[in-house]
Each structure stands twice: as C-alpha cells, then as structure tokens.
Fold:
Amino acid sequence: MCGIVGYFGIKEAQTILIDGLRKLEYRGYDSAGVAIIDNGVLNVTKCKGRLANLEAELLETPLKGTVGIGHTRWATHGKPSDENSHPHTNEKGTISVVHNGIIENYIHLREWLMAKGYKFVSETDTEVVPHLIDFYYKGNIVEAVKKATAKMEGSYAIAVLCSDEPDKLIAVRKDSPLIVGLGENEFYVASDIPAVLNHTREVYLLEDNEFVVISNDGIKLEDIEGDIINKEVFHVTWDAAAAEKGGYEHFMIKEIHEQPKAIRDTMTSRIVLGQPITLDDINITKEQIKKLDKIYIVACGTAYHAGAVGKYVIEKLARIPVELDIASEFKYRDPIIDKNTLMIVISQSGETADTMSALRLAKEKGARVIAVTNVVGSAASREADDVLYTWAGPEIAVASTKAYATQLIAMYIIALFFAQNKETLSMDKIEEIKAAMLELPEKAEEMLKDKETIQKFTAKTYMHKDMFFIGRGLDYAVALEGSLKLKEVSYIHSDAYAAGELKHGAIALMEEGTIVIALATQEELFGKMVSNMRELSTRGAKVYAFAPKGHTEIEKSVHAVTYVPKVLDILAPVISVIPLQLLAYYMAIQKGCDVDKPRNLAKSVTVE
Ligand code: M6R
Structure:
C-alpha cells in the first residue's frame, strides 16, 4: 500500500506533491510527508495522520524548491507516528527516500547497518533504504541506489533524492506500481496515474527493475547495468474529472451512481446482439477451452465475492468445474494445477499482493491465467496470459462498488464466451442472455431511483450493533458482498449466511429485534427463502427483504420489502447489490463515519 509521488521541474514542488498525494490518499492515510531540495539543502516535513495535518504544517512553514518527493502511508512496520512517517533519511539528512512495499530482509539489513555504526530512529522497514544508499554512496547517487536495491528483498517502489546531487531524482520499482508523468521540462513519478493527471496525460508505465533517472538533462530509463531502456509513452484517455467527486459528497456514492455507465462500458463491443462474443486481449483458443478440466477463480475481498458469482455462472453456462479461492490462502494449500488448468484472477487494482502471488504460482505450474482487472498496465494485466479489462473508470473510494458491478459483467462475458466455444448453450440461449444483459444499465438506473426507501431504513436502524445478511444460490454470493460493504464503511458488525445453513447454528443468534437483510431474487429458490424468512420472523427478527417486483406475497412473512427490478435470475446480482451498497453508504453517513476512507483500510493491499 502507501502512495509515493515525486516532482522534478521548474515550479514549486510543494503544491504539486500535495496535489498528487491527495489523489493517492486512497492507498493509505496513516501519515504523510514530503522532502524538497532547496539550494542544495534537503528539507523534510512529515507527520502522523491525514494529509490535512501535513498541509497545516506546510501552511505555517512552507518548503521551497522545485525538486521533491512525497508519501502517504498505510502502516505495516511500525505504528502510525511522526517518526515512522516517510520520507526517511540518512543520519546526515542528505539522502531521502519514500517507499511503497515491504523490504522483507530489513531485519538482517538493519543489523548489518547497525554493526557498521548506523543509527535508526524509526521502527520501519523503509529506514534501511536511505542508510543502505548512504553506505554505497561514493559521489554517484544512481550507482548507490542500484547497489542498495541489489541488497533489498521484497517489494518496493522508491523515489530518492540526494542533496549532494540536487539536480537528480531517482526512482525504481519491483513488485509495486510506479508510473512516470512526462510534462514540458518537468517530470513526475507516482504510484498511480490519477496523481499526475492534473499535469499530464503522457506517462511511462514502469516494469520491475527499471530505473528512472531524472536530471537537468531530461529523463533516462535504464537497467541495473546502465543500458538504456526505450519505452512507449502511454496516453491516458480518461479524464481527470473521472477521478474527482463531480458534485457528489463522497466518492463512494458517486461511484455507486456510475454503475449503469460502468456496466454499459464493460459490455461495449463485447456483448453485441447477433454477433459472436470476441474478446480483444483474450487469446485462449477454442481447443484450449475444450481441454480445460478445471478453473480456479482467485481473488480477495469484494473481487472474491464477484468470483463467487463467477463460479456459479461459469459452471452453469459453460459446464466447467470451478474452484473459488481466497488469494491469501491459495498457495498454502498446495493446489493441484497443470497445463489444463485455467486460473482467473479478479482484481480491481491488478496489484493486490496475494492475488499476484497466486497468479505467479499458477504460471510457474504451467496454467494459463486470465486477469480481470480495472487498471491498464497493472501487474496483473502484464503478467497474465489474457486480460479482460473492466471499464469501470478510476475507483477511488476504498469500498469497491462499481468495480464489483463490472467484475460481475466480466464473469458473465467469460461464462458466455466459454459456453459459445464449448457449445454448451444454443446460440438462441446465448442471444437471450445477451439481450437481458444489455438491459442491465437501465435496470440499474431504475434501482438507483429507489434510494429513499434505503435512507429511511438506515435512519431507523443505524444504531444497531449487528446485522445479518442471508440468501440462497446467487443471493448468498450477494449477501456476502452486502455484509462486507456494511462492516467496512459503517463498522457495524455483520455476517452473511446461506439461508439454509442458519438452522445449523446461527439461528441461535436471532432474538427480538435482530435485523436480517434477506435477498430473494432467485425464482427457483423463492419459496424456500420465504420459509427461511418466516422462521426468523417467528423468532423475533425484523426481516427486511429484497424481492423481484410483483412478488407481493412476501409481505406477509417479513417486516418490510424493497422491490428490485426483475431481470434474469443469473443476472440478479448486478441489480440486487445496489440497494446493499446504498444501505452501507447511508448507514455510514448516519453514523458519521469517514465513508471514503474507512479506518484501518487502504484501497490497494500490496502486502501479503
Ligand atoms: O484491487 P483488488 O480488487 O484486488 O482488491 C481486493 C480487495 O482488497 C478489495 O475488493 C476490498 O475488499 C474492498 N475494499 C472491498 O470494498
């Protein structure tokens, strides 16, 4: 996690760095800091807490200079504190480093450096980096950074300044994202594109072990041997405004409302009536699809919940067995993988550490990997064999909403693509599902109009400490997501259960007034769901049901019903998740929580 930025140019660096950090705060917000070189002197300001704290300090004592680096932290090694904030420096204060990632051998390096007389002032893994660079510094900062990185194990994106060579900014990455923004006579480095979009749309997407050397002579990309790397400039087509709030109070509510568009964009040119599904960046052949004996879907958090829907629809439509795995567990269970195995990783960011480890393990063992990701040029998109981009646009709120909706669409597209190639469905059936998919944006708009019901519900229930989500089949997968959303933004404890499983234990938790959110969108399972709801109402629970329009008979069995637009059963998750996202959002608002930046969380989890 963590966000890093760097600026080298002709303008005052402080404002540009702060602006960049603001765009990266979704990556962590435990502390923030900047280091700027002014007349050959390296000045550092850093402090615990949100970026606003740093801004307040800089307002009182601004830092001058046109070359600088900055950092926003999600704490891993060492609690959030001023000392543990980045940038970290060497003892003389001449070398300054910002870092995203984890230096896995930092204990060894720390002891080694301490034995040589180096003194440490923080508990972080990062602090070994400036000391290591200092150790190797013999008048050439680029060489010293290269020697230091050769000793470092783990993941990192770092940016380095040295006041003895004030006209240089060095950056390098390994297993953590880093991009370079190209301006006119000015350059930017950052963990992610939104940080530079106010200044430029031309960027380099760096690969591992590519060193960026920015100086008065311009920019050079080189490898550890000093050989020049020629790289294509990537032109960012999406608008900076797409990463702004656009009149909404929070990113989360803005992104919830962007779902109809995100769903439509993700289907564009892929789901076209009367045309077979062709997928640009997926090169798996018909023969390879026919030979697949198993698919693993591997992901974390919300992406994992999208995978739960993916498992169901791929098995149902394409008749290929699918195993669903939590990425952080996957490699530790010695999974059975061979060349007839396909892995689908789902990751909004395309850089989640656990998901990337699973992807690499699958590739090592000869499996083919499809990455479903929202970030062009992300690690997942580069390392997988095939990519299916979810065109959700930048998702800034820590709680994933529109990315989830588009991941569901990606699952339907893959399932239909496999069904088409394996001929497990007739063309008529495929066309029927495609036609229903094309109606989803409109149905999502319709669902979004009903937010007042949800607001009223949250006003009555936000003081509850626990809530339960239940469902059967695909509704259970959505219940998992609804429960995660609620707890992550409103801090209300919640659990999701397969409705039929309640009687095997969890029903003991039901008492007078217990709040249960019950999803009943699946026609085939409707009757059984109604029985489950009745069992809970009988035991005093207040059951709030979500059911397809027209199913008014449910009203007798529950406390209240919200009707959702009717769609094909397999597509229902795309619509039924919307009221649950709204519910989580309005609960958090009622409770006064920081919706876009929930405590202890970060958008991209780049540590295992
Ligand atoms: O970037 P990824 O999709 O790989 O992220 C996976 C999870 O960390 C993410 O979905 C997380 O669970 C969200 N905060 C949930 O809203």
Q: What stands out?
A: The chain has a mean pLDDT of 95.
